């Protein structure tokens, strides 16, 4: 277990030893973790209704603004119609929810169904259909012939025509240049739910759509006797999808949650269909397990965010410069600015799910969390080179190859995803794509220092860096086995940080709560301005793109004055021993970083262990690897999430 904060950091603790033992020492805060009063937490949780009402009220009276279909995303594919579908379903959803215009809502839904039935090849393109289908299915639940909100607000014609397009979709016969497997069958026996189609979020959007369609079709007179390609009915498929979903939920708890780790946008796409499972599943066990998944996800996110903005190591992030606060974080916890209404938020805007109070406490009590360390073991390695790329990913389940590590304080969150220096095709591309790390600060939503590589092609790069971190010290280096990675660089935000100053080989800056410094271990560097980013700042480019880069971050309370921080840096003398960079951090940890990629990094003489005994470990979130049981706790509040189905 990661310990609660101690009055002073241990100077001799080894990351490898601690993680191997399933423990790590959290440094710094002098008081035990606090907890917010139950009345305050309940008010935050129950404020969901008011927050949602405000978002939807802003849409009242607005006409349909129909988006136009766009050209194909690549040669040989169907036109890209996601925005067109969003505009129609999003309009219909708010018109029905606000009780404004049932006729216009039905017309919009029928228009979209007619479009897809006339152009079935557009259904089969992976970027067109399952992005809006969960909202359509929710509208049938709410407003169809058996709907609990306003029964019959959807006409019989609409309720029949919309599922006709999904009946075609459930075949999943792609017509683009990368046809993928028939997904009408829920197979968890061979796959263990770790065979992933196209990407993690695509896969989940797909199977939650197929589950929900089967749930409705088994009782609909127009569909209940139809035969799937395997000769079975929707009733049989619904039972199989229930079983698959239970296994899926258990496996995510067992093995470190999501492959697309802390990719807040893609995680939101993954989760949106699960709000439907939570709200509409007939099986009470499936509803319970889905609620557990949502609580686990939000607790995992909550402990590594500042004011709704996630920190730590992240995957599949196209930009980490001034990332907006999580829309789901605002809905469920009141963090950050309110998002604008969107079709793909409809399930979250109308769900009955509410987080456990311990999760609300963790999300909203930033000072009470203190200083602590977080580790997580997500899967990422492919079973073979044949399964590392789309459309058919297969994940190794014995070892994920990754240790996410974050050092969290009220002033900043510094984090990375550690792993060995591997060939790119060892990893599934949905794990290695656009991995990000660095530090975010509480001083401003855009305040950050972010070491990363340029994205050389199509805003994507793979296997770009490897790294090591212990407490407030991160060392990273560009990998020679990277794919589509440009030059190594470090982003210094302008907002919330003082202008960078060079102090004896260190580039130093500070916020109202923290100090930070960057050191290029080999060669000099140059600054480049960049006005194309969504926030003000500039890039530091090392002359040697393969030089390791050291990032030190500390709370202001650790030093009496800025001059003391600078004096401590001057005493740090990174040294080279052949290809090995040796460095003693501000916290007193000894790092050995092998810049020739020959060995895993050492911390205090011990190799980093990327396979500790726990899938999740922090003062607030603990679970033994492969156990499927997760403990959430803060202060006196404690909840155990057991993902095993009852007999």
Head-to-tail CA distance between termini: 30 Å
Biggest sheet: strands, sense, closure? 12 strands, antiparallel
Structural class: alpha+beta
Helix content: 25-40%
Report the portion of residues in β strands.
15-25%
Radius of gyration: 25 Å
Describe the global form. globular
Rounded mean pLDDT is 92
Low-confidence stretches are 1-32, 173-182
Number of strands: 27
Largest sheet, spatial ordering of strands: 16-17-12-9-8-7-6-4-24-25-26-27
**Number of helices, counting only DSSP H or I runs of 4 residues or more:** 18
Could you characterize what this model shows?
This protein has 647 residues and is of the alpha+beta class. It has a domain at 15-32 and 370-612. 31% of the residues lie in helices and 20% in strands. It is built from 18 helices and 27 strands. Strands 16-17-12-9-8-7-6-4-24-25-26-27 form a twelve-stranded antiparallel beta sheet, with helices on one face. It has a six-stranded antiparallel beta sheet with strand order 10-11-18-15-14-13. It has a five-stranded antiparallel beta sheet with strand order 19-20-21-22-23. α5 (102-118) packs parallel to α8 (156-169), α7 (133-143) runs antiparallel to α8 and α12 (284-302) runs parallel beside α15. The longest helix is centred in the middle third of the chain and has 21 residues, at 234-254.
